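Need TlpA disulfide reductase family protein's 3D structure for a figure. Predict it.
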Amino acid sequence: MRLAALIFAIALAASNAYALDFKPYARGAFAALTKAHAGRPLIVHFWSVTCPPCLAELPQWAKIVAEKKGIDVVFVNTDSEEDRARAQARLEKAGLAGATHYGFSDDFVEKLYFEADKSWRGEMPFTALIAPDGGLVTVTGAVDDPLIAQWLEKRGAK
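Structure prediction for TlpA disulfide reductase family protein:
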């Protein structure tokens, strides 16, 4: 069974036939996202299929995306392109197929971490909360972290 799944994932990756549109997330992407969403609250959530807390909280993120139309939410998968099929399956199962998705596409991942937060070393899950005025708060931990809850409450979410 694992072999069949691996063969399917490789074939899917080789054909680049993802149902979800994983936009490339490379150097400069964090600044570009912040600029593109300027004036609106933005959440950039970094996650991985190898992170059990990340997977457990995906349904909570789906609920936030569905309920908070005034907050832009972007998901960034930090796995290699070989794991993109697994990421897609998890997102679809959680009800996040319609969200905006990026995938790491730069081998210099330390630089990608640094651009989001100079003290981030790749711990997951990781969330950047960007206020309409550009103010940035970062959280390493699950969506039920008090800082995330407080930030959402300030913007009308419960």
